[in-house]
Write a structure and sequence with these properties.
The complex is a heterotrimer of chains A (334), B (323) and C (294). Chain A has 334 residues and is an alpha/beta fold. Chain A is built from ten helices and eleven strands. A seven-stranded mixed sheet of chain A has the order 6-7-8-3-9-10-11, with helices on both faces. In chain A, helix 3 crosses helix 4. Chain A is globular and about 65 Å long. Chain B has a single domain, classed as P-loop containing nucleotide triphosphate hydrolases (Rossmann fold, 3-Layer(aba) Sandwich).
Chain lengths: 334, 323, 294
Amino acid sequence: MATAFKVEPAEPVLSVQGLTTSFRVSGDWHAAVRDVSFDLAHNETLALVGESGCGKSMTALSIMGLVPKPAGRITAGRIMFEGSDLVSLDREAMRRIRGNRISMIFQEPMTSLNPVLTVGFQVAEALRYHRAMGGAEADRAALDLLEQVKIPSAARRFKDYPHQFSGGMRQRVMIAIALACRPQVLLADEPTTALDVTIQAEVLALLAELKQAYGMSMVFITHNLGVVAAIADRVAVMYAGEIVEVAAVRELFRRPRHPYTELLLRSIPRVDRHVSHLETIEGQVPSIAAMPAGCRFAPRCPLREARCDAPPPLAGAAHHVVRCWVRSEGGGHG
Amino acid sequence: MAEILLAVERLKKFFTAKRGFPNPETVTVRALDEISFMVKRGEAFGLVGESGCGKSTAGRSILRLVEPDSGRVTYAGEDILAADAARMRVLRQKMQIVFQDPYASLNPRRMIGKALAEPMLVHGLGTPTEIEERVEALLAEVGLPPDSRWRFPHEFSGGQRQRIGIARALTVGPELVVADEPVSALDVSIQSQILLLLRGLQDKHGLSFIFISHDLGVVRWFCQSIAVMYLGRIVEIGPIPGIFDEPLHPYTQMLRRSSPVPDPEIRIEPARFGGEVPSAVNPPAGCHFHTRCPHATDICRQIYPAWREVAPGRGVACHLHGS
Amino acid sequence: MSRAAAIGRRRGFSHALGELLRAFNTNVTSWIGLGIFLTIVLLAILAPVLAPYDPLEQNIVARLKGPSEQFWFGTDVYGRDILSRLLYGARVSLIIGTTATLIAMVVGSAIGILSGYVGGRVDLAIMQLMDVLMSFPTLIMGLMIVAVLGASMGNLIFAIALTAIAPFARIARAPTIAIKQRDYIEACRALGYSDLRIMAVHILPNVMAEIMVMGSLWLATSIRVEASLSFIGLGLKPPTPSWGGMVREGFEVILDNAWLSIFPSLAILLIIFALNMLGDGLRDAVDPKLRGGE
């Protein structure tokens, strides 16, 4: 993989700085995403990994300007993309970026396509809308895209409706739509979670290939550490709304430093070898309205100490940062 | 050799549905096309395959939650499919089910204490006091606080609900539990909690499991034997280390290679792109897998391969391994 | 523990009811509807105490008197006090309406749940029968039955209940079909529960809310049908006061003495209006789209 370990190229494509997205729960505002910062390099795949409710999807929706209102809103932070701060852009400007410069694909390929429009029309629509292409030109480009995402006999299936496609094929169509305008950044929110493993493997391979071909950067959101290992260059682990660890993919799997990451890795049954002891993490993720004041993982952490009552910063050497008082020792504080 | 607890022979279930407008045509879904396998006492038997392969229908047909079209299911020597209603009520105490979706598997209006006491009341398993005590013991056994009895399902998290579902299955003292994707809807950290709980129950009560899952990693960890299903048929059966270390059927190999591994050094291998995946509505002629199989030959396109026992407890249906 | 235990003692039904009431709480119009309806019920119960005159006592001297201090709502052609007759008439309307609705509710829900749960051909046959029942307008059906069997209170109740069974069956059947596919019903079957138990203990509480909404709306319809039948002379025989009958009696002299018809008409209007407000409120409370997240 191209940029696996190169840290900080000249300029990040996307830079999220101190993003906090809050939700109103019975009258009070609570941060579902708190102080999330990361840079996305050119042609890099960054995996955002974590369990349900950790804020990974909300981070993506914040980038897209799609935080559900009025229950939620971005309360702090900047999202720098192509010289402007996406948080402060008006709706019209955001609409020009969405689906054009930054695209998103979702988990549910069954419901993300309009059932009453042909697949070809839906792919061509993005081009007509953002690129002001004429009908015939857009159709030609759309067909080309469907071939690139390897829909078999794409020309024949151009005028088929979504229900005539299987889940894997629909996800390919979604990818074609997302890539129609050659975006700089693709946000993929659990794009393979609803698919069977053999289909998942094909879609992951396709995404990796298209990323190279298009020179895009990708934020890949998933709960599946196996998928992370397969597709990511760099990984950000999220827990309870915060990033708790960031490292290159090999580094993270070989030397996980946050106790959460470490336990998570040891609690996965593996297909490639026999695991005699399966680790568990006792208890459950705290609710958004009742976050611990200090380290948010402390109540479930086997390494908990007195100092964990204060919130730890994200610290460490640039290539591997961790949000943990106990485990950030040795690494220089950032 | 351990005692055979459950034997399934040539179990078949087709579903028919009318589809299309204005000219509806009747389609037949070949959910189960004569599958056979055996579960030993105390064993966890994995049933794996992708969506639509019929693994859930298999679990439900064995329990007669779905009436199979034909075949035999023998439980401890007794033909289940021939049992009348009264006998079935007794047999139901021996075989239970745990569901995938912990949110849908509990009645939202039923307090946990009542939900757990009800099966014992219905089957007359003890006096009210004994039942109360048993409910308390069950809650402790699955790792829930005693005051859970006074709560409703919506007050629990997904993992806790799954514990309740397991406790409910245990109320009648079963010997065999059909676990239909019991950890698929759960987060990774919760998944391992539930797997350990199930393993503990297996060890402590000598429970046998039919463990239905699409996740090969989970099956490898939990089960001792495994059957791989593809479009309504079993394509390979064998003990756990064997199937994973040396899969014989090309589909098993493909599943094994496609399954993600939490290790960036081992990149998963996508299958050679094989086009649209066929469905059980209209499975391909010959070997159902031939449209996606890298080794397919002419015979694979015409004749469904015969079942072949390659070693004791190890069988495969593939022309590559024919005699 | 004690608080949890107290909450815990709520049973399935009352849990459903509590859920309904919580959502209902915030709805002002339904409270107004409930208030008006309960006031009418109270007035009907207390009629012997409140009524200034005997509703059947004729008074030839005071025929067709307009509203006055002595007779608030005036008197009819026989000199009977209209206010007193209205109060007693409310009893007739409420007894017939409520009994008919309750019967339809119980029978209809049972048919609907059974039909939805069993499914297949039985379901098809039952629902086609219900469609036939439903194709008769309520009033025509009532008319036919009362014309054939005669106008007694029992027959009126039977006639009205019969027309309301089909809608209750439909409203109970739809959620039953959805619920029977849930895993927890399958778990019940796996645990060896009888079908009767599954329907009564596990499905009924889950469709109760919908049935109750329908009940409040059909109560209004039942009262209206009773009034209509009385109006066309198929209600209880005079001199028993009923609102529909009073409108009819007043109708003969409506050009000169309008109040005879106006006051009972207003009473009918008021109770139907109140029940519809109540029913709409309940429906909003039950509608999951309008209900707050769990």
